[in-house]
Design a protein that fits this description.
The complex is a heterodimer of chains A (354) and B (306).
Chain A lengths: L1 H18 L7 E6 L9 H16 L3 E6 L6 H12 L4 E4 L5 H10 L4 E5 L8 E6 L1 H15 L4 E6 L4 H17 L4 E6 L6 H13 L4 E5 L4 H8 L3 E6 L10 E7 L2 H13 L6 E4 L6 E3 L7 H16 L9 E2 L5 E3 L7 H5 L8 E2 L3
Parallel strand pairs in A: 1-2, 1-3, 3-4, 4-5, 5-11, 6-7, 6-8, 7-15, 8-9, 9-10
Antiparallel strand pairs in A: 10-12, 13-14
Chain B lengths: L2 H28 L7 H19 L2 H25 L4 H20 L25 H5 L3 H19 L1 H11 L1 H6 L4 H27 L11 H11 L4 H23 L6 H20 L2 H7 L13
Helix pairs in contact in B: 1-6, 1-9, 1-10, 1-11, 2-3, 2-4, 2-9, 2-10, 3-4, 3-9, 6-7, 6-11, 10-11, 11-12
Classes of the chains: A alpha/beta (354), B mainly alpha (306).
């Protein structure tokens, strides 16, 4: 029933959007959001990117967004509606919009689509994602240094490659400091449910985790950690305000440079279907301030960040072993890009099964 | 704090907002009105409570404001469905949509602010008792309020004249009207009570559960509360049991995952719903019992003949 009504809400929102008419000569750029821009996490950062496009190219483009669009048939309907209204470029900003985006793209060959974190493309569908795992590797190292129990709790959303990759990178980072570091994973099967994220954090802490990190969209887990005096990391945006004494750092997604570049390309006619996988080197992944940690841990985190940015260090550099003990990448190699993008296995040491 | 205390505390925190929202809706439905606007009233309570607490610096003022906001939303619903006799289902849905949208607008200035948390109760000696002290005497005040409301509603509905009138209005509004009771007034009062507890449930989310304001932070809890009312066959005792069953299975599912038991997380996430459906099936095998308590006029509009 809940789904049905969220759907009803999405449809109502979408129809509300259609009332606002577009100006005739500007490029119309549409954004589809999985959550509300006020989540202070994933969608918030995408909306910051949208605002940056408005600020930079406001005289040539007009942006419009639809929030809280569920992944599934409603996404298809909402994307279709934007395309019908004359949007020339549409960003769909969640993994689950992949197939709906491709379906709609087939029907509107003249509209350009950009799908975040997916792996299927077409002539008018580009994909883009960030190498968030680079940040995860850094926070994994910090976690292993700061943990007393040697156990971290990881609140995960859905078992898709992007999330699994983050878990693996976190643990690989941690293992460089403490080879026996343990990681407990709780899947909440939702991108956005502050209450459930908070519950998961409480459960993990009661099970001995003294570091909390999450791949969900709200600040709830960070707040629970702050209340219980446990270290945590911000995800997607800077969350230090929610735990001034306990947030060690945040992984910050910065979509603005990408959105501006791609929107400009669409304006100049140089837009092509590409696959972007931007990391620390392109500025799409950034780290917040390193706080609440001793100077040596901070120095290590800064050195690792610098090494990843320069390309000297790859979080998935071999030897990497899968959970079942098979070798994923030998010494001197890195895990193949295809394997990274479609990652469906854990590295050794994760206390969970996929 | 031992692990078992932590689990029980977490279960109580997860169940309380469901119970708060559902106990009010139970009274509303007992009076023959179906209000699908719980989610909207809750989220308005959450945002108003949070905003007021931020402005005044007091969580209690926030809670009062949340109750006022929930009641205001419910009175809008009451005006539409009772005075203008609009369709209750459609009106309830529109209250939910209005609440979700309006709360986002009101709350836009409060996103990203760490909130004020309502403290826990602390009674000298009792709260410090080993094992049970913190669980029985050390919860936040709203937990006790939710349980008190449940007992109160059960008592009023079953033992008092007022409860009899509410049930009569819900069973057969024409007869109640013929007996001289003002169906519309009784329903207005019940709807307002439902709005108040929904607002309270919202305040629980933004001032206790996760002290912050995030758009759409109710995340469907209003709909779960609505289902629980049906699950309970409109009986307050069963409602409390249902809310705690749902919260308990929900938290134990997360707990099992953290233990690394290798049970698929999708299965664990669906367990609270499965458990609720199973309980519903078991209850409805006793046809007589569910028929007796179902308000016969549920969802039907009433126009007094003049």
């Amino acid at each position: 029933m809940k789904k049905l009504f969220t759907a009803a809400a999405a449809v109502a929102l979408a129809s509300a959007m259609s009332v606002s008419a577009f100006a005739a000569d500007k490029l119309k750029v549409g954004f589809i959001y999985i959550g509300p821009p006020g989540d202070h996490g994933w969608t918030y950062q995408h909306d910051q990117g949208r605002l940056a496009v408005e600020a930079k190219l406001g005289d040539k483009v007009e942006t419009v967004f639809v929030e809280n669009v569920p992944e599934g048939p409603d996404a298809e309907r909402t994307i279709t509606r934007l395309a019908r209204q004359g949007a020339g470029l549409i960003y769909t900003t969640s993994f689950g919009y992949m197939d709906p985006t491709l379906k709609v793209a087939k029907k509107f060959p003249d509209v350009k689509f950009e799908h975040a974190t997916g792996y299927k493309r077409a002539d008018n569908v580009a994909t883009y994602s960030s190498r968030f795992y680079e940040g995860r590797y850094v926070i994994g190292q910090i976690a292993a240094k700061m943990s007393k129990t040697g156990t971290a709790g990881y609140i995960a959303s859905f078992p898709i490659p992007e999330v699994v990759r983050g878990i693996n990178a976190f643990l690989l980072g941690a293992q460089t400091v403490n080879p026996d570091f343990k990681l407990k994973v709780v899947w909440v099967n939702s991108w956005f449910d502050p209450g459930k994220e908070a519950d998961a954090a409480k459960v993990l802490i009661s099970q001995g985790a003294d570091i909390i990190t999450q791949h969900t969209d709200s600040t709830a887990a960070v707040q629970v950690a702050a209340e219980q005096g446990v270290y945590a990391f911000g995800q997607a945006s800077d969350m230090s305000a929610f735990g001034p004494k306990t947030v060690l750092t945040s992984i910050i997604d910065d979509w603005a440079p990408y959105y501006i570049a791609r929107t400009e390309a669409a304006l100049n006619g140089t837009w092509e279907s590409t696959d972007t996988f931007g990391g620390m080197d392109s500025g799409m992944v950034g780290m917040g301030a390193f706080e609440n940690m001793p100077a040596d841990v901070k120095a290590m985190a800064e050195a690792t960040t610098a090494a990843i940015t320069s390309g000297e260090l790859h979080p998935f550099a071999g030897p990497v072993y899968k959970q079942d003990g098979t070798l994923a990448a030998a010494e001197g190699e890195t895990v193949a890009i295809g394997d990274l993008l479609g990652m469906n296995w854990y590295v050794q040491g994760v206390d969970d099964k996929l | 704090m031992s692990a078992y205390e932590a689990i029980i505390l977490t279960i109580i925190t997860a169940s309380t907002p469901l119970l708060l929202a559902a106990i009010g809706e139970l009274v509303v439905e007992r009076s023959g009105v179906l209000n699908l606007g719980i989610e909207g009233m809750m989220v308005m309570g959450a945002v108003s409570g949070f905003a007021m607490a931020q402005i005044t610096g007091s969580a209690w003022v926030g809670i009062l404001m949340a109750m006022v906001a929930g009641t205001a939303m419910s009175l809008l619903f009451a005006f539409m469905t009772q005075t203008l006799v609009t369709n209750q289902v459609a009106t309830g849905l529109s209250i939910t949509l209005l609440g979700l949208g309006l709360s986002g607008l009101i709350g836009s200035g409060f996103v990203g602010m760490p909130g004020i948390k309502l403290g826990y109760v602390s009674i000298p000696v009792l709260t410090d008792l080993p094992y049970v002290g913190k669980l029985v005497f050390g919860q936040d005040p709203l937990v006790y309020i939710s349980l008190g409301l449940t007992v109160g509603v059960a008592y009023v509905l079953k033992r008092t004249r007022m409860g009899l009138i509410i049930r009569a209005v819900g069973q057969n509004h024409d007869s109640a009207h013929a007996l001289g009771y003002s169906v519309i007034k009784v329903r207005y009062a019940c709807i307002a009570f439902g709005g108040m507890t929904s607002g309270l449930a919202g305040a629980y989310l933004s001032l206790v559960y996760t002290p912050q304001w995030i758009e759409n932070m109710t995340a469907g809890r209003g709909w779960i509360a609505l289902a629980l009312v049906v699950f309970s066959t409109w009986l307050p005792g069963r409602l409390a049991a249902g809310a705690y069953l749902f919260g308990g299975v929900w938290i134990l599912g997360l707990y099992a995952q953290g233990m690394g038991m290798g049970i698929p997380s999708q299965l664990l996430s669906s367990l609270p719903y499965v458990a609720t459906i199973l309980a519903l099936i078991v209850i409805s095998t006793n046809r007589r019992l569910s028929v007796i308590n179902t308000p016969a006029s549920l969802g039907r509009g009433f126009v007094p003949d003049r």
